[in-house]
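#struct-pred

JT: dropping the chains for the assembly here, can someone run the whole complex?
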Amino acid sequence: MSSFYDKIYEVVKQIPVGRVTSYGAIAEYLGSKGGARMVGWAMNSAHNLKEHIPAHRVVNRNGMLSGKHHFPGENMMQELLESEGIIIINDQIQNFDDVFWNPVTELHHLL
DNA sequence: AGCCTGACCTAGG
DNA sequence: TCCTAGGCCAGGC
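RK: done, full complex below.
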């Protein structure tokens, strides 16, 4: 019920298909640079919601699928991303710079 | 109320 | 370049 989480979900839902962003970028956009860990925590609670949150489009700053282990199955997160055209090798997004979506520059006038 | 933890990030050695 | 430590904030026990 915390507005912080709601904002996180709002941002995550804005991520276009085939694009990804990072925990830190979302936290920075929300004004809590050190709150990157909270973004991951929010994702942990996200599956509890009825609403579909594309948590698979959120990775760490290095473009690595650090949260894949929290998805059902082995490569669920990777398969979801690959189905959107993202290239992943060894849990690492290859064209990360191309698909990276920065909420700070894309949503600067929203929320 | 206090302590531990976590899907992170940055800085210093 | 790899490894360690600290900060950050909310939730669970």
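JT: nice. The longest helix of chain A spans residues 3-13. Residues 22-24, 27, 33-44, 55, 58-61, 65-71 of chain A lie near DNA strand B (CB under 10 Å from a C1').
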